[in-house]
Amino acid sequence: MMNKQLVSYGPKGVLDSTRYLYSQGVSDGKYLYISGQIAWNEQGELVGHDVRTQVRRAFENLGLVLQETVSFIIKS
Question: Among 35, 12, 7, 11, which Cα is nearest to 22's?
Fold first, then answer.
C-alpha cells in the first residue's frame, strides 16, 4: 500500500477553517476533496442577508479553493 501525502488547502480570502478542525480542501495527489462552502468571509462573518448574495459568496469561496489547488498542482 502506497503512502500518499495529503495536502490541505485554506486559501487567503476564505475563513481559516482550521479553528473548526476541518480543511477547505484536501488532495491526495489524484483526487481533490472540497468541503461544503458557506457564505462566510475571511473574518467568519456571514455575508449578505439574501440568498443570492450568500450563494454568490459560497461560489466565490469555492473558486478561491480551486484557484489555490490549481496553483499548487502547477508548481509541483
Answer: 35
Q: The whole model's pTM is what?
A: 0.74
Q: How many Å apart are CA 21 and CA 47, to the nearest integer?
A: 22
Beta carbons within 10 angstroms of residue 71's beta carbon: 12
In this structure, are residues 27 and 69 in contact, taking their beta carbons and an 8 Å threshold? yes
Nearest to 65 by CA among 21, 30, 27: 27
Choose the CATH number for 7-70 among 3.40.50.1100, 3.30.1330.40, 3.30.428.10, 3.50.50.60.
3.30.1330.40
pLDDT in tens, 43-59: 889 999 999 999 999 99
